[in-house]
Amino acid sequence: MQSDNAFRLYNEVIEPPLSDDELAAVNAADLDLAQRLGLVLTYCSQDRLEGHLEVTDKLLQPTGIVNGGVYCTIGETLASIAAVAATAKPAVGMSNSTDLLGSVKAGQRIDAVAEPVHTGKRTHLWRVNMSADGKLVAVTNLKLMILDR
Amino acid sequence: MQSDNAFRLYNEVIEPPLSDDELAAVNAADLDLAQRLGLVLTYCSQDRLEGHLEVTDKLLQPTGIVNGGVYCTIGETLASIAAVAATAKPAVGMSNSTDLLGSVKAGQRIDAVAEPVHTGKRTHLWRVNMSADGKLVAVTNLKLMILDR
Amino acid sequence: MQSDNAFRLYNEVIEPPLSDDELAAVNAADLDLAQRLGLVLTYCSQDRLEGHLEVTDKLLQPTGIVNGGVYCTIGETLASIAAVAATAKPAVGMSNSTDLLGSVKAGQRIDAVAEPVHTGKRTHLWRVNMSADGKLVAVTNLKLMILDR
Amino acid sequence: MQSDNAFRLYNEVIEPPLSDDELAAVNAADLDLAQRLGLVLTYCSQDRLEGHLEVTDKLLQPTGIVNGGVYCTIGETLASIAAVAATAKPAVGMSNSTDLLGSVKAGQRIDAVAEPVHTGKRTHLWRVNMSADGKLVAVTNLKLMILDR
Question: What was the ipTM of the complex prediction?
Answer without folding.
Answer: 0.95
